[in-house]
Amino acid sequence: MADRIGTLVIFGAGGDLAKRLLLPGLGGLLASGRGGELRLIGVDREPMTDAAWRKRVASSFEAGNAGGARPAGVVAASRYLQADVTEPDDLKRVLDACTGTPALYFALPPRVTIAACAALEKVDLPEGTVFGLEKPFGTDLKSATALNRQLLRLAPERDIHRIDHFLGKATVLNLLGLRFANRIFEAVWNADNVEKVELVFDEQLALEGRAGYYDRAGALVDMIQSHLLLVMAIVAMEPPSSLDADDLRGSIAQALRATGVWGGDAVKASRRARYAAGKVGGKAIPPYVKEDGVDPGRYTETLAEVTLAVDNWRWAGVPFVLRSGKALAAKRQEIVVTLKDVPHLPTGLSGRQDPAQLRISLTPDGIRLDLNINGEGNPFTLDRVTLGADFAEGELAPYGEVLAGILSADPTLSVRADAVEECWRIVTPILAAWKKGTVPMQEYRAGSDGPRAW
User: Fold this and answer.
1) pLDDT digits 0-9 by tens, 87-142
2) Strand, helix or coil for residue 352
3) Is the model's pTM score more than 0.90?
4) Which alpha helices (DSSP H) does 205-316 contain, by range?
5) Domains of the chain (ranges plus CATH)?
6) Is 344 a residue of the active site?
7) Could you give the CA distance from residue 145 to residue 417 in angstroms, rounded to a whole number?
8) How many whole angstroms separate alpha carbon 225 and alpha carbon 218?
9) Backbone torsions φ then ψ of 349, nearest 5 degrees
10) pLDDT tens digits, residue range 326-336?
11) Catalytic residue (one of 161, 165, 227, 344)
């Protein structure tokens, strides 16, 4: 689809997200020859000269290895506007500065995004205006539903791009080819053959100055409610008839609609913990509750694990375990599909090993298949062997991929409204149980693998 956006407006342009992720992704997109004839406008409440803004954009482009004439041309023509995005008059001034069809990217906290959308209802929007919204989409099911309805008063669903950059990761996209282009995998991709599925995103990074957002979200909302549930849906979904936006996103939503807390018991199906003092990679880490900006009274978890069920014909009885945490011993970011054990080994074949496992690494991108084969020496003794392959890197970084969708008005890699609401529905009983204190808050030493009891 041809690029049709004339101006990309970044609300929250002075923030860390724009500097570290959004602008480098845009630079890479432009350097690849995509993105069309684009103007860039940065908007935020703090004053900044056009020259300072251009220097910021150029630095971010450089960080994304985005050299060449096209990125340099966009930098040179870029502007910065000081504005309060919750004020209709300021928004009108921003829109008047746009050329062609604008794309409005909200790199803002949820409450500011909601207020800005309310203000936009009082402004005449150019025809075809596209919206890009950074997660989280709302702060709970009620607010997410209200935001979706509010957005539909501004634009049709096809022009609303809810950005989850995980859907732009090369590994996640490679899941589609792995599953649907290889009969060997799809034939066993069901409850008859799969024992359990795990999605793990463990980080060595601690809070890293993000208390303003993270302390109000925690590991469950920050990672599981959004990123991991969407990846899980791609792992679990039925084959779409095409990779058209409606077909693919429809299959994702269908998988999420079938998903709920394992056994319907949020207390038994969830665990939470937060890190205490320790060391990660030789760096001393203070207890989470002593980190700058943290309110101990919020009782925020830094490690969460939930077990879910996908209650349909394909997956009935298979637990899906989703886990994410910070300040852990090792960076472990993978999908693990454990196959069921064989029902019987022939007499004389010894050295029984664990069942076969398919491990799909999210960072770095690759696939490993652990199998049992006859070992060296005694041919009737089993050994473990791993077959592996690395996925080809994507042409663009994840933010470059999702920005490409916004600028070409292709919503394939954006999150549809019903999927957003389903993700919040799934975690709502867990959040409620945690709020009541029925799931204890455990602790783990920073730099460990998590609580010993786990």
Assistant:
1) 999 999 999 999 999 999 999 988 899 999 999 999 999 999 999 998 888 889 99
2) coil
3) yes
4) 211-219, 229-236, 245-257
5) 5-134 (3.40.50.720), 167-393+416-445 (3.30.360.10)
6) no
7) 8
8) 10
9) -95, 115
10) 999 999 999 99
11) 227
